[in-house]
DNA sequence: AAGCCTGTTGAAAGCGCTTTCATTCCGCGT
DNA sequence: ACGCGGAATGAAAGCGCTTTCAACAGGCTT
């Protein structure tokens, strides 16, 4: 940190290169439209001055900011991290900048963060975690920007949604476990809209297939290892001992397994366990954890495709993109 | 997403409120300077129009962006996440926006990301992970913005540094383990500048205290659970079996413990383990993991203090702020 | 030779704010 | 009654870009 002279501007570069500012601007934004020789001179002038375009001015003049706002509940420990990372990475590579906004587990700061994003005139908003407030959804719908909802797959997306059906994931897990012969599942359900949807769908499917209503435990988000341990201990108080515990995240599953083993209980022989998210640790744990895999990088990819199309002014073929999910059967169940 | 009319601007609000744009601007930026009644009318006009200031225009005109760039190697799994979260949160609360830039584990994209940040004329840059390139450090020094380096504590900060001495942390761990009676440490060292500094300091201190040079294993960053398992298996190939494994992160430690237990080896009786970072799971694991605690929220706090002072134009008392660290002794060592 | 197209460039008018400077209006001391 | 100072406001000049629009030079076509 130091101070003094203002940074060079486009007119400084233009003067040095012996062209007009307009030409420098063109060189920067649509290089193909400026003559070879001119380009060379401008390139040299930029290097010499150390010019960095002022993107605030650019955004103001062009009404396109190449700025994208990403909303996540939290980053501390989140299944979204991989997707976010792939996205931020990819966007940066294409010359965009990403503003990260944390909305808090209960979406407390959602509104103020959305206002901030809109005030920066971002080109797009990427939402992770569900915006349940209809008024807010409508407000976003009225703005002429791209809004991508990820992970969930709402019936009526704000604009575009990329994700999978949590209800189907829950139901499928119920079928999977029943078919494997389990009969007394216990659910550990994080207090998030999506997790609860999975939990509900699991229970419905389970009962539809003739099972009794599964017992369940709610835990706070973000989920973590320690919750698994507590969840394991809670098992003792249940009217009848479950033969499989369906956890809302791989971390919970991992903690539960560790606690079970510390108590001398074998997984999956004495009690089976499933997780969610198919984090790397699910495959690394002893025993390896049966989990639900969602291709996070596919979500990122599709999101970027959508953004590219929008920027190019093309129209989209689909407003709901289902990336699906897969139950990964491993040792723990 | 929809389109049509351009969003309201400050002159629309001004017209509706029957004042000049200048007054609305003042109302927005220094409310104390506008009369009570006028304020009321403006407030109403803003509400009626749904006005959101265009911050690009604001930043351009005022030369202050209230935009802060945060650089991290990655977010997927990182000890920095808590600090980042606290910081993003705090900054947003004070009316700033945060641009998150991923530099990649090897700082590959550092330069382009820094250029992007400077192009947006951010007010400050927060660096996590060490910028080793002296040319880049100098370049940043020449810019009239606040640069905060976190976690490390370089001799000659670019501007301000907030962190702790990794060398001291390594050395202290060596003393701690020796005093506890361990004699054959094995190091699992992530390939990051900071981790390696700790590892080296550990070894030096250990030998200075009369121990033999510790064996060690390098692992890639970001570290993860699976590496601990592999590290455990690698132990078998060592010339003599270590009595304590010093891991570069809690995740590694956790994986190592799980693998040891799966092999019927008791922790810490047969082999002790330490981690780093004091993540929540360190206290939750069975056995609980001895780790090194760094107060991440303190780092965030100090960073925000620095930013506040700079924005207020005050000068700083210190350019290097040591937040220290503590070895948290638990069951695993 | 006139007419046209394509490729390349420059002039100039904004983009929507902030901020200086000037102006007006009051209350107050003398 | 006069002048002064402070509070509140407005006029207007930018901030550093982008983007029309027009202009011009060649090269072709007819």
Describe, in plain words, how this protein is organized in 3D.
The structure is a homodimer of 333-residue chains. Chain A contains 13 helices and twelve strands. In chain A, helix 1 packs across helix 2 and helix 1 packs across helix 3. Chain A is of the alpha/beta class and 333 residues long. In chain A, the strands form three sheets. Chain A has a six-stranded parallel beta sheet, with helices on both faces. Chain A has a four-stranded parallel beta sheet with strand order 7-6-8-9, with helices on both faces. The radius of gyration of chain A is 25 Å and the shape is elongated. Chain A has three domains: 44 residues, 434 Repressor (Amino-terminal Domain), CATH 1.10.260; 126 residues, 3-Layer(aba) Sandwich (Rossmann fold), CATH 3.40.50.2300; 128 residues, Rossmann fold. In chain A, helix 7 links the parallel strand 3 and strand 4. At the A-B interface, helix 4, helix 5, strand 2, helix 6 and helix 10 of A face helix 4, helix 5, strand 2, helix 6 and helix 10 of B. The structure holds a DNA duplex (30 and 30 nucleotides).
